[in-house]
Fold this sequence. Notes:
The longest helix has 31 residues, at 5-35. This protein has helices spanning 5-35, 46-50; strands at 77-78, 84-87, 94-96. The radius of gyration is 25 Å and the shape is rod-shaped. The protein is an alpha+beta fold. It folds into 2 domains: 1-36; 38-109, High-Potential Iron-Sulfur Protein, Chain A (Irregular). The protein contains 2 helices and 3 strands; from the N terminus they run ααβββ. Strands 1-2-3 form a 3-stranded antiparallel beta sheet, with no helix packed on it. The structure holds iron/sulfur cluster. The site of iron/sulfur cluster has 13 residues, from loops.
Amino acid sequence: MSENRSSIESRRQFMKTAVVATAAVMAGGTIRKLFAAEPHLTDADPTAKAMDYVDDATTSKNSLYKPGSVCANCQLYTGGSNGYGNCQLFPGKLVSSKGWCTSYTAKAS
Ligand code: SF4
């Protein structure tokens, strides 16, 4: 029993459409992840609390804090353009570029 040409073409077209649709969905997910806003770290976070993290370094009462030390010049900080960036210690959350915690490590100059 042989299939007619129209049926084969129709199946081919369906497969092409399915591949394109799958690729579009996967690309959409990746793009959404890239642009999804990560939540800001707050000093209410248990890990942040344990490390005395503050959004504004100048408000720190920790004796280890030295004026001028901020996330923006810490080795563990990867800056963002809006005053927030990633810290290796807090994956999935953004720290303030003006923040500070007890794990502060000055960038090598
Ligand atoms: S380790 Fe550095 S970048 Fe991370 S929160 Fe502490 S001071 Fe900021």
